[in-house]
Amino acid sequence: MSTSILSTFPLGFPWQTQDPFLFCVYHLDHYPKGNGEMGPDASLEGRNLGNDFLIKDGWRMYHGQTIPGFPSHPHRGFETITIVNKGFCDHSDSLGAAGRFGEGDVQWMTAGRGVQHSEMFPLLRTDSENTLELFQIWLNLPQNNKLVAPHFKMLWHEDIPVVKEDSAAIKIIAGTYKTRNAPDPAPDSWAAHGDNEVAIWNILVDANGSVVLPKASNEALRTLYFYEGDTLGIADQEIVVNFGAQVDASKELTISAGNKTAHLLVLQGKPVNEPVAQYGPFVMNTQAEIQQAMQEYQLTQFGGWPWPHADNVHPRDKGRFAKYPDGKLVEK
């Protein structure tokens, strides 16, 4: 095995991660045309509605009963970073914030001391398929930020830099790539401090092309996820699609695509290096803190749910937008 590659692994559901990342999942659903009510214009027979995670006919309903997605659910103690490359996501939360984002947009949400939100995937097109391609990444918060105030931020695709090289394009969602910086993350994030070397890059390498990833420090952990293409050369080793690799971040790394365009996600950062206690959507440092989180959620519902439905979606003809907790509205 190459000295640059520390290990390789198949991409499951979810994907394997390293500290400071807790979770990473890739959703690719070839939804049919919509039925006018933003659900699929197709039979739902044979699906385990409310828990539909098996790919049937190329798509899943997840926890949705009529519209695919994830109705209201709580989080505490970490951040979610949701990258929607194709299709759209409708966000609603207990802060009163809302949004519709997609086609390359990114939502960064700090759960902090507690928030409820829903993430639904409205099928807006009624005359053609509604493909969804989405990553959701969970980034840990250190103990001193576990209970910060929740925060909601949009990174619109128009504002996310893409570095074009001879045979590659690197979208910088977090951190720095060579001399280019991503938009600022949420203010209490582990990624808000450059010394933590957090980076999230979505990279496209042309068929038979290559790209050289810059080196980071000895402390940074870097993972590559090869999710579309045929083969990928990493230094002097080849991996096939739907595999990942933990690599030595302290070395420059040459990546070469095979006969098809290669798509990969890169996650990097210095570890938080703290104990992790997790129960479903709560991530704290101790089991006692998990118990406290569960009790507080039962008592307060983290502010309640100000929306008419647990699977709230926005009007079908609504464009991309974000409504922030302070009432500020941004429309794209």
Automatic annotation (TrEMBL):
Belongs to the pirin family. Residues 310-332 are annotated as: Disordered. CDD domains: cupin_pirin_N. SUPFAM superfamilies: RmlC-like cupins (SSF51182). Residues 311-332 have a biased composition (Basic and acidic residues). InterPro entries: Pirin, Pirin_C_dom, Pirin_N_dom, RmlC-like_jellyroll, RmlC_Cupin_sf. Transmembrane segments: none annotated. It holds the Pfam family Pirin_C. Residues 202-303 form the Pirin C-terminal domain. This is Pirin family protein. It comes from the Bacteria. Residues 53-139 form the Pirin N-terminal domain.
